[in-house]
Design goal:
- There is one protein chain.
- The protein has 316 residues and is an alpha/beta fold.
- Helix content is 52%, strand content 17%.
- It has ten helices and ten strands.
- The chain has helices at residues 10-22, 33-42, 60-68, 90-95, 108-154, 164-181, 195-202, 204-221, 246-263, 292-308; strands at residues 2-6, 26-30, 48-52, 78-83, 100-104, 185-192, 228-231, 236-242, 277-284, 314-315.
- Strands 2-1-3-4-5 form a five-stranded parallel beta sheet, sandwiched between helices. Strands 7-8-6-9-10 form a five-stranded mixed beta sheet.
- Helix 8 (204-221) packs across helix 9 (246-263).
- The model has no long low-confidence stretch (mean pLDDT 95).
- The structure holds 3'-deoxy-guanosine-5'-triphosphate (GH3) and magnesium ion (MG) (3 copies).
């Protein structure tokens, strides 16, 4: 254990040094604040500081303040060594961060007892700090794991879009918000045209790739951060558009349909020789007596109508 003595009186320094060295401590003696600071810079392995109060230049209390305001030394316990006449300074010494004090003339047994108890307190504080840091780390890891699980449980594994569970949650919460704010909410449902023949022709793996390709087109056409694109079912997708009128939703729906058609994914069994989608759009002004399921019903009817009218079109 390394102890740094700071005292301008040589006899005190020599005495403290002798007592501590004979008790097995590694002792460093300095005669001024400047000398002590230089020593601390060079030798960081100091476990405790014995600090005289009255010294020419920077006195003990000011030095204690300096040490305690430096992150590198903050945790090193400081014991003030003071003459009876400086007892009024003790309040200031404790305010400056001193852990304990000892009166001059220093008695050997008291000195060793106070040093041991300061070092024990320091060890206990270190242990507590370690436990707190460990607890913080574990808490952060746990929060991260919970976030990951929440993500996993709300995302569709194939496309990375929101899944049906997330769709239901988001629609319910946005429905409530729309009631509070008196704003509309729109829903787009779209379904791949002739997808069964697509799978039959190209195989299920390419069918999956087609679903992924469609999902990856979505960020370009659905841009508001409050909009949520979901994989609603097998080859059916949904977009929840909070605070969006019928007109706005129709524009988004048409840009989805066009973007897909323009992507030109080959589909020999489709009349247009490429993958297309049919789109249904519905808009509601939610009220406390209404339910989100009615909006889904309207969008579904519109989608069915788009299929009936020949596919690759949007119906509201
Ligand atoms: P329509 O134009 O009327 O929508 O005809 P369709 O053939 O697309 O409709 P249908 O509902 O008969 O077929 C949907 C097909 O989508 C059947 C099913 O095998 C396929 N499908 C559903 N989910 C997946 C999936 O995750 N991967 C693949 N590859 N195919 C899927
Ligand atoms: Mg002095
Ligand atoms: Mg379908
Ligand atoms: Mg289909």
């Amino acid at each position: 254990m390394g102890i740094l003595i700071i005292d301008d009186a040589e006899d005190t320094r020599l005495y403290l040094q002798a007592v501590l060295a004979s008790d097995g401590f590694e002792v460093y003696a300095t005669a001024s604040a400047q000398e002590a600071l230089a020593h601390l810079q060079d030798r960081p392995s100091i476990d405790l500081i014995l600090l005289d109060v009255i010294m020419p230049g920077i006195d003990g209390i000011e030095l204690c303040q300096q040490i305690k305001s430096d992150a590198a030394w903050r945790d090193v316990p400081v014991i003030m060594v003071t003459a009876l006449t400086n007892i009024e300074d003790l309040d200031r010494a404790f305010a400056a961060g001193a852990m304990d004090y000892i009166m001059k003339p220093v008695k050997k047994r008291e000195l060793l007892a106070r040093i041991r108890s300061a070092l024990a307190l320091k060890t206990e504080m270190d242990r507590r700090k370690e436990r707190e840091e460990e607890l913080l780390r574990v808490t952060a890891e746990l929060e991260e794991a919970v976030r990951k699980l929440q993500n996993l449980s709300s995302l569709d594994g194939l496309t990375g879009l929101a899944n049906r569970r997330r769709f239901d949650e988001y629609l319910a919460s946005e429905w409530k918000r729309a009631i509070r704010n008196g704003t509309p909410i729109s829903l787009i449902l779209f379904d791949i045209d002739w997808f069964k023949p697509y799978n039959d022709t190209y195989g299920h793996i390419q069918g999956d790739d087609c679903l992924k390709a469609i999902a990856s087109l979505m960020p370009k056409v659905v841009r508001r951060s409050s909009d949520l694109v979901c994989r609603y079912g097998g080859e059916e997708f949904a977009v929840i558009l909070p605070d969006t009128s019928q007109e706005g939703a129709l524009a988004v729906a048409e840009s989805i349909r066009e973007a897909l058609s323009e992507a030109g994914i080959e589909h020999r069994q489709s009349p247009l020789d490429r993958v297309t989608v049919s789109v249904g759009v519905a808009t509601a002004y939610p009220s406390p007596s209404s339910e989100p399921v009615t909006l889904i019903g309207y969008a579904d009817e519109a989608l069915y109508e788009a299929k009936r009218q020949g596919r690759n079109r949007t119906v509201e």
